[in-house]
Amino acid sequence: MKLTLKLYAGLSRYLPDEAENNAVNLDVNENTTPNALVEKYNLPFESVHIVLLNGVYIKPEERDQPLLKEGDVLAMWPPVAGGRR
User: Fold this and answer.
1) What is the CB neighbour count within 10 angstroms for residue 51?
2) Which end of the chain is more exposed for a tag (fewer CB within 10 A), N or C?
3) Which residues are registered as beta bridge partners of 2?
4) pLDDT digits (tens, 9 = 90+) for 40-65
5) What whole-number distance in Å separates Cα of residue 78 and Cα of residue 52?
6) What is the maximum span of the chain, computed from C-alpha positions, in angstroms?
7) Backbone angles phi, psi at 30, to 5 degrees
8) Band of the pLDDT at 23, cuts 50, 70, 90?
C-alpha cells in the first residue's frame, strides 16, 4: 500500500535521502500503524508530539492501530514552543 510520510521541524532529519519537501512516498504493509513508522525511521517516540492522518489529529493511544490506507498522508511534528507573551 502506498502512502506519504511527512516529518516537520526537528523530525525532518530522520527522513531518507530521497525525501523532498519534508515528505517521502512509502510502500508499506497493509497493517502498518503510525507507531510502526515511528519505529522504522528511528524517530524518538517522545519527540513525536502531533500526528495528523489526512489532516486529522490522531491521539497517542490510537497510534498503534492499523489506521492507514492506500493514498493516506501521515504528518508528524515534535513538540512546539515559542511565540510571544
Assistant:
1) 20
2) C
3) 27
4) 999 999 999 999 999 999 999 999 99
5) 12
6) 45
7) -60, -35
8) very high
Q: Which residues of 55-82 are buried (b: 16+ CB within 10 A; e: fewer)?
A: eeebeeeebeeebbeeebebbbbbeeee
- Give the Å distances, CA to CA, from 41 to 1, 81, 82, 83: 17, 24, 27, 30
CA pair distance 54, 51, nearest whole angstrom = 10
Reported confidence tier of residue 85, pLDDT bands at 50, 70, 90: low
Local structure of 4: helix, strand or coil? strand
What value does the mean pLDDT of the chain take?
Answer: 93
**Secondary structure element (H or E) that encloses residue 35, with its range:** helix 34-40
3-class DSSP state for residue 1?
A: coil
